Amino acid sequence: MTPEEHSTLREMLGAFSLGDLSEAEATAVQAHLDGCADCRRDLAEIVPLAQSLTYVSAKRVSEVASPDPDLGRRIRAAVAVERAQHWRRARTRRSLLVAAAVLAIVAVGWAWRSATRCPRRRLHLPSRSRRWLSRRGWTE
């Protein structure tokens, strides 16, 4: 069975639970359910809802539910707030990274400066040894 066929049969589970399928479609869905545990699990979740729908009368539902006209504006406002919070957190994170980098550079510079400021010790060699080193280009 291809994924498309599986998806089609899975979409038919709601109609199957309500008994709204033709005999051929219901047979195909039942055959699929015999071999697919995932679809059996989905059908087990759908059946209680389908049983509750038997108490609903289409004649008693007088108007179709419509969203609040202000809903779009509220959603856009909420998205704008979340976006501003995201950028604020990103800016804070970036500032902390820059501060950590500056601190690391200062620490490395301080360590390097401390290491290079150590006084150099002069070797106290006898004059004969100093002459011998200076003739060979090894000066102190």
Report on this structure.
The chain is mainly α and 140 residues long. Among the domains are: 3-53, no CATH class; 77-110. Helices cover 71% and strands 0% of the residues. It has 6 helices and no strands. The chain has helices at 3-11, 13-18, 23-35, 37-53, 71-116, 127-135. The N and C termini lie far apart (87 Å).
> Given the helix and strand composition, which structural class is it?
mainly alpha
Give the helices and strands as they follow along the chain.
HHHHHH
Number of helices: 6
The major beta sheet can be summarized as: none
- Terminal CA distance reads 87 Å
Quick one: overall form? elongated
What share of the residues does DSSP label as strand, in percent?
under 5%
Rg from Cα: 40 Å
Helix proportion range = over 70%
Please mark out the parts with pLDDT under 50 across 5 or more consecutive residues, or reply none.
Answer: none
Q: What average pLDDT do the residues reach?
A: 84
Number of strands: 0
What does the secondary structure layout of this molecule look like, with pairings?
Blueprint: H1 3-11, H2 13-18, H3 23-35, H4 37-53, H5 71-116, H6 127-135
